[in-house]
Amino acid sequence: MVQSRERLTPATLGAGVIQPKDWSRYSSEKATVVPVYGDDDLGIVIWNLEPGQENECHLHPACAHAFVILEGQGHYLQHDPETAKYAENAVKQGDLVLIPRQTVHGMRNTGTSNLAYCAVTTNQEGIGYQRILLADVRAAGGPPIDPHGELALANSPRH
Questions:
Q1: Are strands 105-108 and 132-133 parallel, antiparallel or unpaired?
Q2: Predicted TM-score of the model (pTM)
Q3: Would you say residue 122 has pLDDT above 70?
Q4: What residues contact 79, with CB distance under 8 A and at least 6 apart?
Q5: How many C-beta neighbours within 10 Å does residue 126 have?
Q6: Residue, of 2 and 145, whose pLDDT is higher
Q7: Cα 85 from chain centroid?
Q8: Where are the chain's structural domains?
Q9: Alpha-carbon distances of 135 from 62, 104, 122, rounded to whole Å
Q10: Class of 22-138 in CATH
Q11: What is the three-class DSSP state of 111?
Q12: Could you give the CA distance from residue 140 to residue 147 in angstroms, rounded to a whole number?
């Protein structure tokens, strides 16, 4: 495991070929996220979860995701847990998870070994990356989550 890495940028990318597991860092205290790459259009991080840890339910108003499970197994938490559409979908090494913008999601390590996944995130021009915890949305009294477990924003296109 690599002990120290700095987030790559277009200027520092070099050939652009990396080994995602080189960016894995685990902590017994909490799930860890390691920035891998970022530019105006794209962000890439590696999430590292020990057994029982999770990346809690959250959403991105303007960003879509793709997760590639690098190692381990767990559950992809899909939609708001307080809606009928909520699901815990089993995932394992090699799986690809696609998440449209404004969709509540999270990940939980339900296995007995470490879970790592690469999260590729789009960035919308003028808005950038925003991560809103579902618990914070509820505590603030909105914006509302629609019956499908998605953020209900007026005039917010889903692509």
A1: unpaired
A2: 0.82
A3: yes
A4: 85, 86, 87, 103, 104, 105, 148, 149, 150
A5: 6
A6: 145
A7: 19
A8: 22-138
A9: 19, 11, 23
A10: mainly beta
A11: coil
A12: 19
